[in-house]
Amino acid sequence: MECPFCGKIDTGVIDSRPTKERVAIRRRRQCLACAGRFTTYESTPEQLMLLLMRQYAGRSASARSPEAVLSFMSSALRSLSEEIEKLVVEVDKPGPPKKAKKAGKKLAAKRVPKKKAPARRKVAATKPKKVAAKKEKKMTDTAQVLKVIKGHKKGANIQKLKQRTGFADSKIRAIVQRAYKRGRIKRLGRGVYVMA
Known about the structure:
Blueprint: E1 11-18, E2 25-31, E3 37-42, H1 45-57, H2 66-92, H3 105-110, H4 141-151, E4 156-157, H5 158-165, H6 169-181, E5 185-189, E6 192-195
Antiparallel strand pairs: 1-2, 2-3, 4-6, 5-6
Helix pairs in contact: 1-2, 4-5, 4-6
């Protein structure tokens, strides 16, 4: 499973349990490279079909109930046919008219090449040239957090980082954890960090 934070493939499963509807397995995973945590949901096609049937026929529907299967199939086919009709209408719309090509030997023979006018000299412009403004590079989230930590010599805690950056608590904790593991920051006390 690919980590959404760093893109590495090495991940481990921390927790695994079925969802409330019992149609998928919820797995809590942790990246072994950056220690980022994320959730995945895994289901079989049969479980997915049962979930869709319950949406159309109600919670009491089961795969063995013929009424539930028939109502699900009819509603699915109805929505599919509506989508196909929309696509057919889009394809059948008339486009802009195409111009007829006028080509032939007679037309080509009648054409006379035009004489070119003498080239005019361009007068140098006296207007000053505009200096292109440099675009500011957008700082990454990690760079913003590290900048705030760098500005606090006695250490910055999670609350200060939240106030200064406006990021969510979980996002700040993930950034701080990665920076700590890479040795860019160090801990002074519980939840207080300074630059390494």
